[in-house]
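Lab manual, section 2.4: Encoding a predicted structure.

Procedure: take the sequence of the chain (249 residues), apply the prediction step described in section 2.3, and record the output as structure tokens. A sample record is shown.
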Amino acid sequence: MSELVFDDVSVRYGVGRGAMTAVDRVSLTVPDGGVTGVVGESGSGKSTLARAAVGLVPLHGGRILLDGAPIPRRGPRPLQMVFQDPYSSLDPRMPVGASIAEMMPSGMTRRERAAEAARLLELVQLDPDKADARPSRFSGGQRQRIAIARALAGRPRVLIADEITSALDVLIQGAILNLLRELQDELGFSMLFISHNLAVVRYVASHMAVMRDGRVVEQGPTAAVLDDPHDEYTRQLLAAIPRPIQYTP
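Recorded output:
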């Protein structure tokens, strides 16, 4: 099983009167083998929630559990994260194959790591012969594929995708989303998918949560939330989606 549970999670930045609550008593579940989307405006707390899951920010309160147990902070990481910016998530001095191999479990030989890096590049639909190239030789969409391969090298039980298509153009966004769906179906990992784009979440996630000011204001099956929203903020987000202009002859 790979069920990720946020149980009454709070995250604060700063201390005393200057403290800011970025995530306020959030509870939600990423089901085993499923995809849960989290949407909200910039500053809603959704990315902080993702960073808390992988230990990049400490919890002020609550628990984050994987299959009912605290997430181990040492040894192999059962959660891996793909970040928003494909241009800053890879070391520009390191060949992409070596960057992918860096995330692999210990105990593998150099030859095994090279073979696994080539397999992962092929899995994300890139030429494995380019493993010795540096990130500057790749486009933004290709770099995001490499970042996904790097995350998968850690053999995660849960993948966290934080706004991974927002820095890409529309055509490349679609290709990355299709790839992510194919990988999730093939490998069976659970996924927390962070986005500000409701259409993207509808396409990727079976369940979703809407965040505002650090709190979850609505959650449930994606189709139910988007087709019949109960919270006014969710309705505002839906109303803000651009509609095609209808011309009448």
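Check your result against the sample. The helical segments are 46-53, 96-101, 110-123, 140-153, 170-187, 198-204, 222-227, 232-239.
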